[in-house]
Design brief:
Order of helices and strands: HEHHEEHEHHEHEHHEHHEEHEHEHHHEE
Pfam families: DUF2398
Structural class: alpha+beta
InterPro entries: CHP02678 (IPR013494)
Distance between the termini: 58 Å
Largest sheet: 4 strands, antiparallel
Shape: globular
Number of strands: 13
Radius of gyration: 24 Å
Strand order of the largest sheet: 10-11-13-12
Number of helices: 16
Helix content: 40-55%
Mean pLDDT: 88
Low-confidence stretches: 345-356
Strand content: 5-15%
Length: about 425
């Protein structure tokens, strides 16, 4: 046993729950995600710190009433945005206000009022070209409140008096006083590099290479384990060859089963970790109209690709996943305040060519027809808003399938990835809405 060696069989289930908890919630406070989370992590802190470092290259930090799992990233991931309480993904403005809130809280004492926080953030934001913050402007105020609510939900800010809701409606009509969890503030923002020395976000992904063969194999094994726990499905063509070798190896399933209590499923195209414990933030198939439409579309796509009586789907070369990373890097770097960057040296981000693979194309026309058929067949399962806007339902269902690695959106349609085959010949049942 390489992992959880000091954990008894009687405690192994609790230990695995603590591992899954940290993988899902890398920031844990006295109240986030619940009051039982921090004691669960502290109970196994020594074993967790050693195992998470060896297995994934992660660093577990415990400070006061805060646990923070500092993760190593192998690439930019656009599918895990910060979300508002209404489920709306953060945009650039909200991320900027969140960062400025953390900067202000880092300089503050143990308490701060909401209006003081807004004034301090506005002072910093108004010195940044293209940003600004005017609490009397509805859009600015809503974005700022979303950033504050994100911190409040995680226990970084704890309401001591007053109400934030009244201030959110009208800054002049109410006030809120917050206690500041300083250990959580310091744990949230810990960049590995001085940001003024960073010329590109890709610099945050770079790690020092080792000339040792053992060190390289260890790093590849860690990258393989990270890929499995961070992605819904991992295709061999999407990872470097050395990482793919570890994904195919015999040690990986045993390691992850020992650490997480979950089973690894392996196919000729790749692997996935079967979520039997409900630890993922988002599951597929899931609940809700979009998730239902997505699984029904997956069935239609699978049948279209394998239809023996229909016209054979045209096959196309899948987009290079490394090209997507280049695009994400460029889009992120577009927001870099160039005036504050201290240029040290040129460090171009080189990306190797990916293995080409051809996948069947399912056209937008077919997806529109399939969505219309789904709405017709399961009419009462979808609300009136979806019937009035089937294109939106199709777009959101396709985006969900893309997040789970089932399809790749391309101009004119989607490319069906091997995961779609799981839903071939599936008989889908949709829970009908009760009509009053």
């Amino acid at each position: 046993m390489r992992f959880a060696a000091a954990v008894s069989d009687l405690e192994l289930g609790d230990y695995q729950r603590a591992v899954r908890l940290l993988l899902r919630h890398p920031l844990i406070t006295a109240t986030w995600p619940d009051e039982k989370a921090l004691p669960r992590v502290r109970r196994f802190s020594a074993e967790l710190r050693a195992d998470l470092a060896e297995a994934f290259g992660y660093r577990l930090e415990l400070h006061g009433a805060t646990a923070r799992l500092v993760r190593t990233s192998d690439g930019l991931d656009p599918d895990r945005p910060a979300l508002s309480r209404t489920g709306r993904p953060f945009d650039r403005r909200r991320y900027a206000y969140l960062s400025l809130c953390l900067a202000v809280l880092g300089r503050a004492g143990v308490q701060i009022t909401l209006s003081e926080l807004a004034d301090a953030v506005a002072g910093d934001a108004n010195r940044i070209g293209g940003l600004g913050l005017d609490p009397d402007t509805g859009g600015d105020r809503r974005a700022f409140v979303d950033a504050v609510a994100w911190l409040e939900e995680r226990g970084v800010l704890r309401l001591a008096d007053g109400s934030s809701a009244s201030w959110a409606s009208d800054p002049g009509a109410g006030e809120a006083l917050y206690d500041i969890a300083r250990d959580a503030v310091l744990s949230l923002f810990r960049p590995p590099r001085v940001l003024q020395h960073i010329e590109s976000v890709s610099a945050l992904l770079e790690r020092t290479a080792s000339a040792s063969g053992n060190a390289e194999r260890r790093a590849a094994a860690q990258a393989a384990r990270r890929a499995v726990v961070e992605r819904p499905v991992v295709y061999y063509t999407d990872v470097p060859v050395e990482v793919g070798n570890h994904l195919r190896g015999q040690a990986l399933p045993a390691d992850l089963a020992r650490l997480t209590g979950l089973r690894l499923e392996r196919r000729s195209e790749g692997v996935l970790l079967v979520d039997t414990a409900g630890w993922s933030a988002e599951r597929f198939p899931g609940t809700g109209s979009v998730a239902q439409a997505a699984v029904l579309l997956a069935v239609e796509i699978a049948d279209r690709v394998q239809d023996p009586d229909g016209r054979r789907a045209r096959r196309m070369t899948a987009p290079d996943p490394h090209e997507d990373q280049i695009r994400l890097v460029r889009e992120t770097d577009a927001g870099l305040p160039a005036a504050t960057v201290i240029v040290e040296h040129e460090s171009p981000h080189e990306i190797d060519d990916a293995e080409e693979s051809k996948l069947p194309l399912v056209t937008d026309a077919f997806l529109r027809e399939a969505t219309a058929e789904i709405l017709s067949r399961f009419g009462s399962a979808f609300g009136a808003a979806w019937h009035a806007d089937p294109d939106r339902l199709r777009a959101e269902a396709v985006a969900l399938l893309a997040r789970f690695g089932a399809v790749i959106p391309v101009p004119g349609g989607v490319l069906a990835r091997p995961l779609i085959g799981r839903y071939r010949n599936t008989v889908a049942q949709v829970k009908q809405r009760t009509l009053f």
